[in-house]
Sequence to fold (119 residues):
Amino acid sequence: QVELVESGGGLVEAGGSLMLSCVASGRTSSIASMAWFRQAPGKGREFVGRISRSGREENYAVSLAGRFTISRDNSKDTMYLHMNTLKPDDTGVYYCAAQGRGSGEYSYWGRGTAVTVSS
Fold:
């Protein structure tokens, strides 16, 4: 099994930056792509971005492209989300997810880390 733990959330002013981390443990060799999702208060879960196993391919929600950047360091079993020019609408709980090799679904999820952007 795989466990994912997010960290780095907190309170930040609008226009600021924040970096989130997601550390994987367990059978990390079974992880293929990884992704970030978020859920704003009163809203459903929203796709933020995805990164391939190698870290060479990235996909982002169109509305977030250019402000958010995903990277991963497999030697540390860690994925990152660099968030820049934060807006109040970016407030929410950010979740880390991982896709198992040979699977089309995100099999593993973290518990989330809360981000609050003040205006």
